[in-house]
């Protein structure tokens, strides 16, 4: 069913393009996030050439290899892909049957994205985003009690996005007709 | 045909009615998700330091741990004679690295910084300044003790032994608080230091405050994880680099700093 729904949506190149662009944007956002302030300051610097401005963000994408564990790189990439596919599916669905939108699927997707974003980063060295949030409340130490030190949130993000994708696919494949 | 559309419309309306059991699920999800993501971005970019909480035998953690004030690169202590510098201390470009010896990404980034010194340090253009940022909540006790051990190496053998000790420490530690602290005197012997004097220094805890000062400096600077590097140009312009970035990123920042005169 999922495969059939994907086939139905991605028969149209526009949805492939939408999914690819969204996935790349989410991936870039995740990888750049620790260095957003650097990127912003370089982009705003009047004396830095345009080519150097373009070069830095491109180079920083390489940190998916050097600044992520295998686990965090895996779920970061998975979240980016799932988010892109999810968005394309939801747009496809919304364009056809607005009144049929199952809110639960979309809501699950949003929670998946939020959980995934919170789980991004280096769990071993404190740049992990959730650690930053928790430290505001003074409870960053609780991460030490989690087996994956917070990587669980990234995995949860993948699961929720997967569930969202499944729900959306199910509704695409089940048009509202009277069953005999 | 019109009749069929009417029936479908009625079905949709009924389904819509059944879905109104929880009409706020999507807006609520968007708001919560947005809040989480915004919080993550704000925490990440505003420089609120990761506030390590930890077990410290000397009790220094409680005295000098960063406590979450908003940091600023301008608040960082200037490079001075008490720093550990690899390369020409008068180099126009300095890279201050805050690091934790038990952080696997610091271990991964250490050779990257050596590459930078290999390429830009020999001609006196770039110097590497090392500061301690042990994260107690992730690497309790050991990261601080290892930082103190490097200071003891410095006391007993000077700057060269500090770097030799640090290199060897990063080389052998499995990271993530896995190093057996009994290895610390072994590393001292390996780099040519006297074991007894080294142990005497380490056991005294005399450098605990120095390490805590570096940690507090990192907190004031807004560091939220390690490794965290700041490339300082000749004119004082600072470029922060968060994480174990590839050498090409370090090189790109050095090239940007070279233009700042």
**What distance separates the N and C termini of chain A?**
20 Å
| Tally of strands of chain B | 5
Please state the average pLDDT score of chain A: 78
Radius of gyration of chain B: 25 Å
What does this structure look like?
The complex is a heterodimer of chains A (180) and B (261). Chain A is mainly alpha-helical. Chain A is 70% helix and 0% strand. Chain A has 9 helices and no strands. In chain A, helix 7 packs antiparallel against helix 9. Chain A is globular. The longest helix of chain B is centred in the middle third of the chain and has 31 residues. Chain B is globular and about 55 Å long.
In brief:
Chain A has 180 residues and is mostly helical.
Summary keywords:
heterodimer, A: 180 residues, mainly alpha, 9 helices, B: 261 residues, alpha+beta, five-stranded mixed beta sheet, 5 strands
Layout: helices, strands, pairs:
The complex is a heterodimer of chains A (180) and B (261).
Chain A (H helix, E strand, L loop, with lengths): L1 H8 L3 H20 L3 H9 L5 H11 L2 H4 L3 H27 L6 H16 L10 H8 L14 H23 L7
Helix pairs in contact in A: 1-9, 2-6, 6-7, 6-9, 7-9
Chain B lengths: L1 H18 L5 H21 L14 H5 L19 E3 L6 E7 L4 H18 L4 E7 L9 H31 L10 H8 L4 H10 L3 H14 L6 E5 L5 E5 L4 H12 L3
Parallel strand pairs in B: 2-3
Antiparallel strand pairs in B: 1-3, 2-4, 4-5
């Amino acid at each position: 069913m999922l495969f059939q729904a994907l086939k139905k949506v991605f028969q149209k190149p526009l949805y492939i393009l939408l999914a690819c662009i969204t996935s790349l944007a989410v991936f870039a956002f995740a990888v750049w996030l620790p260095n957003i302030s650097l990127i912003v300051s370089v982009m705003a610097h009047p004396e830095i050439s345009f080519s150097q401005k373009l070069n830095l963000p491109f180079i920083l994408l390489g940190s998916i290899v050097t600044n992520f564990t295998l686990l965090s790189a895996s779920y970061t990439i998975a979240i980016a892909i799932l988010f892109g596919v999810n968005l394309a599916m939801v747009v496809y669905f919304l364009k056809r049957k607005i009144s049929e939108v199952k809110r639960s699927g979309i809501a699950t997707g949003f929670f998946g994205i939020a959980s995934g974003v919170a789980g991004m980063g280096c769990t071993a060295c404190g740049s992990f985003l959730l650690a930053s949030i928790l430290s505001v409340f003074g409870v960053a130490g609780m991460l030490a009690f989690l087996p994956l030190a917070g990587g669980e949130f990234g995995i949860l993000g993948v699961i929720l996005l997967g569930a969202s994708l499944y729900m959306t696919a199910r509704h695409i494949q089940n048009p509202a007709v009277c069953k005999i | 045909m019109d009749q069929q559309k009417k029936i479908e419309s009625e079905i949709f309306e009924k389904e819509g009615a059944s879905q109104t059991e929880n009409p706020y699920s999507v807006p609520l999800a968007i708001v919560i998700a947005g809040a989480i993501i915004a919080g993550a971005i704000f925490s990440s970019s505003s420089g609120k330091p990761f506030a390590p909480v930890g077990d410290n035998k000397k009790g220094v953690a409680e005295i000098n741990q960063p406590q979450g004030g908003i940091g600023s690169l301008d608040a960082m202590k200037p490079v001075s004679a008490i720093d550990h510098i690899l390369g020409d201390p008068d180099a126009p470009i300095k890279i201050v690295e805050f690091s934790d010896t038990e952080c696997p990404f610091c271990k991964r980034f250490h050779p990257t910084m050596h590459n930078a010194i290999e390429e830009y340090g020999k001609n006196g253009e770039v110097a590497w300044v090392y500061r301690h940022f042990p994260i107690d909540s992730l690497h309790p006790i050991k990261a601080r003790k290892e930082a103190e051990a490097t200071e003891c190496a410095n006391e007993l053998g000077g700057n060269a032994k500090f770097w030799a000790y640090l290199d060897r420490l990063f080389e052998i530690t499995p990271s993530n608080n896995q190093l057996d602290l009994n290895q610390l005197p072994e590393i001292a012997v390996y780099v040519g230091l006297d074991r007894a004097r080294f142990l005497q220094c380490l056991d005294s805890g005399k450098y605990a405050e120095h390490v805590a000062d570096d940690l507090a400096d990192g907190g004031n600077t807004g560091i939220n994880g390690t490794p965290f590097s700041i490339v300082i140009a000749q004119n004082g312009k600072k470029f922060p680099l968060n994480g174990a970035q590839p050498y090409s990123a370090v090189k790109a920042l050095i090239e940007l700093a070279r233009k700042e005169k």
